[in-house]
Each structure stands twice: as structure tokens, then as C-alpha cells.
Amino acid sequence: MVESVDILQATMLIVIGFLAGGINTFAGGGSNLSLPALMMIGLPADVANATNRVAVFMQSLTATRGYYVNDKLDKASIKDIFVPTLLGGLIGAVTASYLDVEILKPALLATMVAVSCWVVLKSDTGPADNNIVSCSDSKLGFFTTLLAGFYGGFVQAGVGFVLIATFVGVLQYDLLRANALKIVAALIFTSIALVVFIFRDQVAWMAGIYLAIGSILGAMVSVKFSIDIKPKTLKIMVLVMTVIASAAALLT
User: Fold this and answer.
1) Residue 1 falls inside a structural domain
2) CA 117 – CA 236 distance, rounded (Å)
């Protein structure tokens, strides 16, 4: 699917993409900006949800490379989460792809706001001990990682916080490793989700490419500073931006 984008819309998507790529690399919630922005330029909810994955894929790929170069990724951990994340992402993407459009838009926006509120109010996570729980040895670990993958495949918005809560709270990773691992998880479920949406011809490529350009730049800048960001400050910022962006999208 190829839809025209004017200069003003292209500029807006690049700027939003830059912010979203940066926020997603720091912690999560960037799609709370990019998804409503795509709806605001006239894309239906299902197409906006699919198109957003082009940018998420590119920013995740960029950030993953950044963490890898800086030796912040554990290959054993990636192998451990791969299956539940991929499977959850596939189920979530197929569900979103076939869900009725009139139901999908309010469902996406309501979910985005709910997750953001949950993040601010309940999901503060501290450092974990060194007893990392493996998905292959823990049914709870496998199931929660599967659910996080499903949410990411379904909507993406705010999934970074869900992944961090899962990796720290259930799998017992420390916050630094969890933040890097969540980027890889996003790359895994976004890859399979994007395949589903491309197969269903639900990607508006021009909008997706402009959004991806900004997202790549945002990820490149943010990966260098992700360790120093104050999580509480970012959480509150994301909640405020979510409410504003979602309200604007509902009025279009």
C-alpha cells in the first residue's frame, strides 16, 4: 500500500519519529506519539498500527546494533526469550490485523493510556539479584514473556515498559540489562508482526519510511544516553504525551 504524504506531513512524521525512536530506546512509549500521529494524517487504525512497525523495526535494529557495539547484550538471554517473544508477537499481530477497524482504534488508544497509567503508578522496578530465571525453566517466565510479545505484536505502544517489568520483575534481570534486552525483544516481535502486516497489505509505505527516518536518528542519539535517563521523569512525560496525542487522534 502506497499513499501520498505532503511536505508538512512528512516533516511532522520525521520529527515524531525522532522523538519516538529516542523514547523507545530510553525506556518505552514512543509509539504513544507515532501511532496517533499516523491516525491524524488520515490512516485508518489498522493501517496506522501496521505502518508504525516500519519505524519500530528500523529503530530497534539501530538500537540493538548500538547496544551490541557497546557490549551491553547477553547472547544467552536473547536465545532464552526468543521463542515466547516471537510466538506472542505472531499471535498479537494476527489478532490486530483481523480485528474490526471500528473496534481497533478505541481499543488501541484506550490500551495506550491504560498501560501508561499503569507504568507511572505501579511499575517502578528496582535492581534484581543475580538469580536470573530462564523462560525454559519457568512456566510463569515463559507465559509472561509470551504475553509481552503478544502485546507488542498487537499494539506496540508502551510495550517497552511491559517488557522491562517482565524482565526485571519476573525473570530477575537488573534494570540495565533488561533495558537493552527489551530492544532485542521489540526487534523480534516487530519482525514477525511486520511480515504479517505486509502480507495483509496494511502498510502505508511512504508514511512508514518518513517515520522510520526520524526513528533511526532518534535511536542513534538516544542509545548513548539511555543509561543516564531518570525513569520516573520519562514515565510522567510519556503519560502526558499519551493523553494529549490520543485525545487529538480521537478528534480527527
Assistant:
1) no
2) 9
